[in-house]
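Lecture 7 notes: from sequence to structure.
We start with the chain below.
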Amino acid sequence: MEEIRVADRQELWKCPANQDIADALERIADLMEAQGADRFRVNAYRRAGRSIGNRKEDIAELVLSEKDRLGKNLRLEDIPHIGKKTASLVREFVRSGRIGLLERLEGEIAPENLFRSVPGVGDELARLIISDSTFMIFDSSFRQRLATA
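Predicted structure tokens for the same chain:
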């Protein structure tokens, strides 16, 4: 795995493996779905994630060189299910270690919807988890008081 210097953060970043990229795209799909986004858009991110996860060649290497392992020119957009927007997100992730869209989606989702996106957690359990009496176990000051008691 190649290390590159991230220009805006002046640090070394290890390029993500294909599965890391696929997981990030799947996470985007999950968050969009939890927010009620168009199902075709959600499924497009899922298909793109599967497509990248199933690739044998190193996607990060492809992003950095725009060539496959045989030296042939190959763009991300040439991979099935990868459009311009998704290719842009993958390039951003490989080059910086971040995806702005994913960070924005994670910041926008309501806690109840976030818990609901966990397999096995439905509406009732999600409401219970975020209710005041249950949610206080996640409060750091409450945990500190328990630890010192």
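Points to note: The two ends are 47 Å apart (CA to CA). The chain has nine helices and two strands.
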